[in-house]
Amino acid sequence: MPKINLKLLKKQAQREINRAGDLKFLNEIFKKYLGKRGELTLVLRSLERMPKAKRAKVGKEANELKTFLREKFEQKKFSFAKATEDKEEWIDVTRPGKKLVVGHLHPLTQVKRKVEEIFQAMGFSVVEGPEAENEWYNFDALNIPKDHPARDMWDTFYLKDGLLLRTHTTPVDARYMEKNNPPLRIITIGRCFRHEATDASHESNFYQIDGLMAGKDISVANFKAIIQEFFQRFFEKPVEIRMRPSYFPFTEPSFEVDMTCLVCGGKGCSACQQTGWMEMMGAGMMHPNVFKNSGLNPKNWQGFAFGMGLDRLTMMKYKINDIRLLYSGDLRFLKQF
Ligand code: DAH
């Protein structure tokens, strides 16, 4: 029987228990002293082989130590349990609450609704047409016959069975006039597709706003008044518009519409190439052939039509410099609106 110094054993065990950092380690220490082959267990087992006089003294001391150490272990175990409990259960009710992140509408949707709201207030109806369109409505009905070079103005994605992805929203005007007689006021906002290389201002998928107002004596003056009013309401700033001659097969005369540059207020800056004007849309007086193709007599009716990019409008409103951001799905971008 090796000589065992119980006082030393007590000191050592106590120190190790104190140092134990977790329950697993504490159990190891328990095993080391009080397990089946633990140091203290061995002492207790050796008692019966001891001379009587020594046995009484060592026995008392060893049993006291056993009780003492068990208690220490229990205390330490309890402190671990309490620490985890504190961590999990403790709630500081005075802390400010976590803000819930609520989703919101995409900037294009917000602008689409705003545009619809403004035109509706001016008596326009919002109408829709198919994204997979046929050649008739996308081209022929709009006075762009097959083999006409003007078809080159739109790089088209062709589908099967005479269908294509509409290259503009103007076909909706033709569809509407076929079923509805003037006087009429409509706008349509929807997706368009063009087979072209993408860059900061071009996407193969984009949104276009098309508008049409037709009646007995609708003139360019009506167009100018309505579009100027629209821009003022949309940008919430006084603006002027001007028209330059242009060409579209479905309008005659056709024009390109510019608006006072919002960056410099018309004085001239780098955003407007020092002109003071921003190019906003294509427009014109509806071509007689388009009325004819829709079953209306061009001698009875006249009207204006216009088309502009919803993306462009959104980019100007929020000063976004790359159209691709609008289709990136990047939350860092979208969360700003
Ligand atoms: N659809 C034309 C385009 O995509 C834009 C346009 C021009 C629409 C004149 C119109 C219009 O309704 O009258 O380039």
UniProtKB/TrEMBL annotation:
CDD domains: PheRS_alpha_core
SUPFAM superfamilies from the UniProt entry: Class II aaRS and biotin synthetases, tRNA-binding arm
GO cellular component assignments: cytoplasm
Cofactor note: Binds 2 magnesium ions per tetramer.
Database matches in Pfam families: Phe_tRNA-synt_N, tRNA-synt_2d
E.C. number: 6.1.1.20
Keyword Iron: no
Domain Aminoacyl-transfer RNA synthetases class-II family profile residues, every copy: 109-336
Keywords annotated in UniProt: Aminoacyl-tRNA synthetase, ATP-binding, Cytoplasm, Ligase, Magnesium, Metal-binding, Nucleotide-binding, Protein biosynthesis
A GO biological-process term: phenylalanyl-tRNA aminoacylation
Intracellular or extracellular location(s): Cytoplasm
Enzymatic reactions: tRNA(Phe) + L-phenylalanine + ATP = L-phenylalanyl-tRNA(Phe) + AMP + diphosphate + H(+)
Nucleotide-binding in keyword set: yes
Cofactor: Mg(2+)
Chain positions recorded as Mg(2+) binding sites: 252
Alphabetized GO MF terms: ATP binding; magnesium ion binding; phenylalanine-tRNA ligase activity; tRNA binding
Top-level taxon of the source organism: Bacteria
InterPro entries named in the record: aa-tRNA-synth_II, aa-tRNA-synth_II/BPL/LPL, Phe-tRNA-synth_IIc_asu, Phe-tRNA_ligase_II_N, Phe_tRNA_ligase_alpha1_bac, Phenylalanyl-tRNA_Synthase, tRNA-bd_arm
Family statement: Belongs to the class-II aminoacyl-tRNA synthetase family. Phe-tRNA synthetase alpha subunit type 1 subfamily.
Subunit structure comment from the entry: Tetramer of two alpha and two beta subunits.
Stated name of the protein: Phenylalanine--tRNA ligase alpha subunit
Lineage: Bacteria, Candidatus Nealsoniibacteriota
